[in-house]
Structure formats: structure tokens, C-alpha cells
Amino acid sequence: MISRFHFPGRLPDAGEVELPEALAHHALRVLRLRDGEQMVLFDGEGGEVDARLTVRGKTGFAQLGERRTLDRESPLPVVLVQALASGDKMDWVVQKAVELGVAAIQPVQAERSVLRLSGERADKRITHWQQVAVSACEQSGRNRIPQVHPLRPLVQWLASARGERGYVLAPGGGTGFGGEARPEGAVHVLIGPEGGWTEAELAACDAAGFRRVTLGPRVFRTETAGLAALAVLQAQWGDF
Q1: Strand partners, 38
Q2: What is the rounded distance in angstroms from the CA atom of residue 68 to the CA atom of residue 240?
Q3: Contact residues for 223 (Cβ-Cβ < 8 A; gap 6+)
Q4: Is the pLDDT of residue 13 over 80?
Q5: Residue 223: how many other CB atoms lie within 10 Å
Q6: Quick one: pLDDT at residue 184?
Q7: pLDDT tens for residues 121-161?
Q8: N- to C-terminal Cα distance for the chain?
């Protein structure tokens, strides 16, 4: 299988480019690609290029083929609004959501979130999750990188999202996705933390116009719920 790499910045149409240090390290030291091996570079804006690796000393270069535009994005743009989860659960959610075709991820701080982030710690985690999204695009063949938005308190985000189309997962407190009309534009899916939403948070979601939905009689973990919802939406209105 030919390795794919995200190249920061727009790729030229032809010629040779020096690989950025982080990309070269991953290709040469981690994957141990050798001089002359084929690779694919993509710029995150829809374009990708077949390339051949050239190694000179400790520096890697790419001999570029013809640039092509390949759209592998879902026709249904879904924004996953994920309450912070503890441990490495957020890494898992970001990675798998990107594989499932999510358009963007909005982390929110909920009342029952075990993980608490603010300031520099929050900024570092967003940067880390954005890189997780990049790696998931490299693996899954996507040429556009979903944005992981800055962390916001749930209530603050809801205030800015009034009028948006969306759903809030509330086990036992709603109906399924069946019977819903195909949405126009982006769809937002709100997923609670390990301890679930509080009644005040659900009321705030109601007031913002988000409909309560459930995924059947079983209660999913926070790291499972959003991915299951994405799969349902992709099967119903996306490209599954």
C-alpha cells in the first residue's frame, strides 16, 4: 500500500519539493521508506499528487507527478459536537469520526465532563487533536482535513448555534432518526460526557432548537455514541 502524507501548504503543479522536517522524519525514520519509493502527497484542500521519494543525506525530497483533485468528502456535512471525555477517548473519537467522514469537530466543556481544560492546556490538546485528524486523513484517503475547533463551554456554543440544524443524543428521552427529512446544509450532532447531560443542559439544547434523539434501547459510552450517530447519518443521507 502506498503511503499518504499531508503536505502543509499548497503543492506545486510539478517539479521537486523538499519534505518538511516532521513529514520527512515520519517517512524516513518511522515508516522507513527508501529512496525511490512511491508516495502520495495531499495538501488538505482537495488536491493530491503521486510522488517519488528522493533521499539526499538526512533530507527527503519528493519528485512530483501531476496534481489531481479528488473529492472523497461526504455530501452530508456533519459537525460532531463532542463533550470532553477523559483519557485517550477524545483521540479515538477524533480519529474514527474523521474516518467516518465528519466535516468538523467541536469539543465542548459539559457540567459532567471528567476532563477539565482551559488556557494553554486546552490549546495544546486542540493542536494534538488536529494532528490526529491529519493522520486519520492520511490513512483514510481524505484530501480535506476536518477542523477541530477551539474548546468552548456548551452553553456558550449553544448561544452561537441557534438556528442550526441538529440533534442531541439523549438516551431514553427522544425518538430515532427515522422519518426525518433530509437536512439542508450542515447537521450538528451533540454527544454528552461520561456522566451524561444534565437536565439543565438538555433544556438549553431544547431552547437552541436541537431535537432529542436516541439510538435504540441501549446506552452507549460517550466514545461510541457519536460514531454510531455518524454511521446512521451517513447511511441515511450521506455516502454509505
Answers
A1: 52
A2: 24
A3: 85, 89, 92, 93
A4: no
A5: 20
A6: 85
A7: 999 999 999 999 999 999 999 999 999 999 999 999 999 99
A8: 23
Report the percent of the chain where pLDDT is more than 90: 75
Three-point CA angle 28, 8, 71, nearest 5°:
105
φ, ψ for residue 183, nearest 5 deg: -75, 150
- Other beta carbons less than 10 A from residue 74's beta carbon: 19
Indicate the average pLDDT of the chain: 92
- Exposure string over 163-202, b if 16+ CB within 10 A, otherwise e: ebebbbbbbeebeebeebeebeeebbbbbbbbebbeeebb
Whole-angstrom Cα distance, residue 58 to residue 202?
Answer: 55
In a 3-state reduction of DSSP, which class is residue 72?
coil
Helix 222-237, helix 89-99: angle, nearest 10: 10
| Single-letter code of the amino acid located at 95 | Q
Kindly indicate the confidence band of residue 50, based on its pLDDT and cuts at 50, 70 and 90.
Answer: very high
How is residue 47 written as a grid cell? 488536491
Reported as a single tens digit per residue, the pLDDT across 76-111 is 999 999 999 988 999 999 999 999 999 999 999 999
> Largest alpha-carbon pair distance within the chain?
62
Calpha distance 117→84 (Å, rounded): 9
Here the cell at position 8 is 502543509
